[in-house]
């Protein structure tokens, strides 16, 4: 009887060792695949940055040149607008910025932060960068 138990225990131990080894190899392969995928994405992102294929924001100087105004409430209090970025209502005296090409209005603090990261209007995606606007106009004149 104890011989049968020894055989069964040996088989169970062998099956556990094989299962553990298979799971260990599967876990290591998963980590390797995730690492290769992540490194590939980082290399691709660095390559696009080096080649200039990414959206740069505006410089602080260019952001400061955009027209600013103090918000004045209309006649009806209920018709108050809100900033599309933070979704807070404009209050009397808030410093706001108007984007020149599209005319969209934002809190200055919200749109300044946005434009330092991306040189497009958050709502309509029109380019705000004066250098790129001039290039687009020149291309339109050539066509």
From TrEMBL:
Residues 83-125 form the RING-type domain. One of its GO terms (cellular component) is membrane. GO terms for molecular function: zinc ion binding. It is found in: Membrane. The keyword Transmembrane applies. Keywords: Membrane, Metal-binding, Transmembrane, Transmembrane helix, Zinc, Zinc-finger. InterPro entries: Znf_RING, Znf_RING/FYVE/PHD. Its main location: membrane. The chain crosses the membrane at residues 12-40. The keyword Acetylation does not apply. SMART domains: RING. PROSITE patterns: ZF_RING_2. It holds the Pfam family zf-RING_2. This is RING-type domain-containing protein. It comes from Vanilla planifolia (Vanilla).
